[in-house]
Inverse folding.
């Protein structure tokens, strides 16, 4: 059994919770940040404008899905099998390019060398009568923006989990991203042939760690080396993959030793659906047995409503279970017409307008990904409504420029197929269009803009210097990478005049440095990684400052009074700072208030302890004074800046450092070594889990202490340990560490003088 049977308890709770089902789901509750970023709801009953019958049929047979997971869960291997079984490719090739070919979706040389997905890759395929637009995404947290922008434009996703490792750190991140964009998911437990495979434990982890109701639609026939196939719980049939590459599906009777397990799994599925679906809930209370069609319909409703995830299983590397996964995608994932997206009407004060997802509407499309191709910039676009045709003109909403669509293509990894037009719901690529990721295009008849995607802030920086001083491609490469990847930032340090690159992790920056060498023939020397520290206030401090400067003509005069205070954690979590105007009686003229706010922002840009930005501070302006002749915007801007500088030093400021969630997995015999390495780096153990031969340790460790950890872990586990980490939050450093950081910063300033 996957979980205890509920019995009468659920029947009672059904009656008690009848009213609660009509309440809005917590998953739909949005923070101010997510509301501003997106507004996306699911509704299959809303009346839309009368579309063409052929267009309706096309949309009914279209699914836009992504393949997402933690690193090394087998996403790209799953995608490779999907392409093979749909007839999109003729041969299967494996990740890491062991056969000197490599997986279709990992087309970059670096991806094949390292065996990881670095960039999301789009393709299309056909399963039966259904067309599939598929995006394979990276699993490494350093490339999380690729997952972010893929999920922004997709209607559904397949969450791949390892049958041994289960829910891992990046799985939780992907789950959070799916919730952010309201994307329903099917869960696929991969690697059922691996030693220690335990699908029951993985399903329980989905329920507990991801807080997502889940139930299996299949029961495995064997496991590990003896994994043969699966039993479909709904049809009560055994499914086997036969043939050289599992292309032949053979149906059979349920093995006798699994009859009871299949019956229990079906009862559990019905009980779980009764919790999340009204129709099955009523049938459950009345002790009515639902039919197969009713169960399929309930699974689909609950999945699209994001109240439930159906769980399938298989082994992509052994060519088992992929066809059943494709059937589930067609059956349970939403059509484009069942997704209600919204856009902002710029002409009408950014009022939200519902997207009408048919081709007979005015064209609206979102550019979600950029690549530098051999024919110039390649722009990936999701068409939300209307039709885009080769030769037509499109309007870039942000700039107002009119651009001609000279070439239109459908992507298959790094190859493409020229097409004449695409309708609503499709994903395509354009050439030679100058835009940024997240820009909206229309046909010019409307001024609509799609909401953009969430872009996380970088957590690590390092200096970058080309070995040759006159490296002409250096700035060209940096400009291209910044345009492609919103999480890759570049700036020039004013004091050292060095080029500083920032990103999501060491691997993220290493990949770009290597790409500069390979793609632009620019060899670079990198400096020591720099952590993105922040400064903040810990207590309230008042200020009263007068800025007075007399020159030959009109002078400068401005007085500001008020206080600054820390913003408590959780309060205005989406704002790193806040400016509040409480000036009464016009003591500071209204035209100078914005200048005061600019002065506050000037002060926040660079702290006074280690030179990093200040966050989590609220400035409240209460009073002041102005001079009829000498006061100006500059005077009040400087007065506020100097007032903030003085007051901040009195707030007992603290330095914040990024804390990372680190997940380490290693053979059980090295558990002591792993815990020792975490403790040595001042990490806090959050969770430990042992699963037969392997152990998993989750800890929170300061990023500043994680440099060089990969080498230490390999040496301490005989090369068998691996780890992943992702940004958790910023937290105050220890007092002794703060003193060291301040001394180091002062020393650098002294050297520059």
């Amino acid at each position: 059994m996957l979980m205890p049977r509920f019995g009468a308890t659920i029947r009672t709770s059904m009656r008690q919770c009848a009213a609660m089902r009509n309440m809005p789901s917590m998953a739909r509750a949005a923070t101010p940040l997510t509301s501003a970023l997106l507004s996306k709801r699911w509704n299959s009953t809303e009346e839309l404008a009368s579309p063409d019958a052929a267009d309706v049929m096309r949309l009914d047979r279209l699914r836009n899905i992504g393949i997402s997971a933690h690193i090394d869960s087998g996403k790209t291997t799953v995608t490779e099998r999907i392409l093979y079984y749909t007839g999109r490719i003729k041969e299967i090739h494996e990740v890491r390019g062991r056969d000197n070919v490599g997986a279709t979706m990992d087309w970059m040389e670096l991806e094949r060398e390292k065996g990881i997905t670095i960039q999301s890759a789009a393709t299309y395929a056909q399963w039966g009568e259904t067309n599939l637009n598929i995006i394979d995404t990276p699993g490494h947290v350093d490339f999380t923006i690729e997952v972010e922008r893929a999920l922004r434009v997709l209607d559904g996703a397949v969450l791949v989990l390892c049958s041994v490792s289960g829910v891992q750190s990046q799985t939780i991140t992907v789950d959070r991203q799916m919730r952010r964009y309201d994307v329903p998911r099917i869960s696929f437990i991969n690697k059922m042939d691996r030693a220690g495979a335990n699908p029951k434990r993985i399903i329980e982890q989905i329920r507990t760690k991801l807080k997502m109701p889940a139930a299996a639609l299949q029961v495995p026939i064997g496991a590990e080396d003896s994994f043969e196939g699966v039993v479909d719980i709904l049809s009560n049939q055994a499914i086997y993959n036969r043939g050289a590459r599992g292309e032949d599906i053979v149906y059979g009777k349920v093995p006798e030793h699994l009859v009871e397990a299949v019956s229990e799994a079906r009862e559990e599925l019905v009980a779980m659906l009764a919790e999340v679906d009204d129709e099955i809930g009523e049938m459950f209370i009345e002790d009515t047995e639902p039919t197969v069609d009713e169960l399929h319909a309930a699974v689909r409703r609950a999945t699209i409503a994001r109240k439930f995830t159906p769980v399938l299983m298989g082994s992509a590397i052994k060519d088992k279970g992929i066809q059943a996964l494709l059937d589930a995608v067609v059956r349970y994932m939403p059509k484009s017409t069942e997704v209600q997206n919204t856009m902002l009407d710029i002409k009408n004060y950014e009022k939200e307008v519902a997207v009408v997802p048919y081709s007979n509407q005015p064209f609206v499309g979102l550019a979600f990904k950029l690549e530098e191709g051999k024919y110039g910039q390649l722009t990936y676009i999701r068409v939300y409504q209307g039709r885009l045709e080769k030769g037509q003109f499109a309007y870039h909403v942000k700039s107002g420029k009119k651009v001609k669509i000279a070439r239109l293509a459908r992507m298959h990894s790094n190859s493409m197929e020229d097409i004449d037009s695409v309708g609503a719901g499709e994903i395509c690529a354009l050439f030679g269009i100058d835009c940024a990721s997240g820009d909206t295009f229309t046909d010019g008849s409307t001024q609509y803009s799609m909401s953009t995607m969430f872009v996380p802030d970088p957590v690590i920086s390092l200096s970058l210097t080309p070995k040759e001083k006159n490296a002409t491609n250096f700035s060209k490469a940096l400009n291209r990478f910044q345009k492609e990847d919103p999480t890759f930032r570049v700036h020039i340090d004013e004091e050292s005049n060095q080029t500083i690159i920032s990103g999501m992790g060491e691997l993220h920056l290493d990949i770009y440095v290597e790409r500069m060498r390979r793609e632009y023939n620019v060899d670079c020397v990198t400096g020591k990684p720099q952590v993105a520290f922040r400064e903040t206030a810990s207590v309230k401090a008042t200020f009263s400052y007068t800025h007075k400067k007399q020159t030959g003509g009109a002078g400068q005069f401005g007085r500001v009074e008020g206080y600054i205070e820390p913003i408590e954690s959780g309060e205005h979590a989406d704002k790193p700072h806040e400016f509040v105007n409480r000036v009464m009686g016009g003591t500071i003229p209204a035209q100078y208030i914005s200048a005061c706010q600019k002065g506050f922002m000037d002060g926040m840009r660079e702290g006074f302890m280690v030179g990093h930005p200040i966050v989590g501070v609220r400035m409240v302006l209460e009073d002041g004074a102005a001079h009829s002749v000498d006061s100006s915007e500059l005077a009040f801007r400087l007065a506020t800046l100097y007032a903030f500088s003085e007051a901040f030093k009195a707030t007992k400021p603290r330095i914040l450092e990024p804390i990372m969630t680190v997940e380490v997995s290693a053979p059980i015999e090295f558990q002591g070594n792993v815990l020792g390495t975490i403790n040595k780096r001042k990490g806090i153990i959050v969770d430990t889990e042992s699963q037969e031969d392997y152990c998993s340790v989750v800890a929170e460790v300061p990023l500043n202490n994680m440099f060089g950890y990969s080498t230490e872990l390999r040496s301490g586990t005989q090369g068998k340990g691996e780890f992943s980490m992702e940004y958790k939050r910023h937290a105050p450093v220890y007092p002794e560490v703060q003193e060291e950081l301040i001394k180091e910063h002062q020393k650098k300033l002294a050297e520059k003088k």
